[in-house]
Amino acid sequence: MAVVANDRKSKKRSQILEAAAELFMQKGLENTSMDEVAVQAGVSKQTVYSHFGSKNDLFVHCIEDRCVSAQMTEENFEMDAEPEQFLLGFARRFLDMILSPEVRHVYCSCVRSSESHPELSQLYYEAGPKRMMELVTSYLTRLNDAGVLTMPDPAIAAQQLLLMLHTVDKMRGDLGLELRMDESQREVYVQQTVTMFLKGYRP
After folding, report:
1. Global pTM value
2. Rounded average pLDDT per 10-residue block, the chain, 203 residues
């Protein structure tokens, strides 16, 4: 019985996150109500609040859930994998994530409301970009300590890698313009970026 109850609870939580992500993408956080999330998810408002204490809390969990879906969590940064192969896989997943419509829409929504609701930008930054920086910095620090790579400051190296992966297409998407790179061009970009990054920091 407990397993069934937990499965039901997990399913409702997923429904709420999916509904909230869709609404946040369409309307922005400031224009989305918890009532709307409940209706979209097919649950009661009380159920939404029992899983997430506030709309801000729900927003943060949506960002974290997107990172988990893209395998951007601490357990995915394994030291056992050869750095080039790991970074290629990471770069592909990262680029897919930041170029996805839902991530771009939420990011642009935060930018639009940054003056009236600066706390939204802070929430987004803490749960998304800052957390990503911490994960990559931790991984590069371990490679540095093991002598696999040699870098004066892993935090700076992490920033360099992530910003190189943003591409012109990220800028175009944020401006509402059509993306230009097809799948093969994106793969070439990823490979060249990882090769250049490792060449700069190999001992």
Report:
1. 0.84
2. 60 87 81 88 89 87 82 76 92 92 85 84 89 94 95 97 95 91 96 97 93
3-class state of residue 53 by DSSP:
coil
Query: Which tokens hold the place of 184?
Result: 């093969």
Contacts of 52 (CB under 8 A, 6+ apart): 16, 58, 61
Listing DSSP states for 121-147 in one string gives HHHHHHHTHHHHHHHHHHHHHHHHHTT
In order of their start, the domains of the chain are 1-54 (1.10.10.60), 70-201 (1.10.357.10)
Coil, strand or helix at 32? coil
Q: Is 157 exposed, middle or buried (0-12, 13-18, 19+ CB in 10 A)?
A: buried
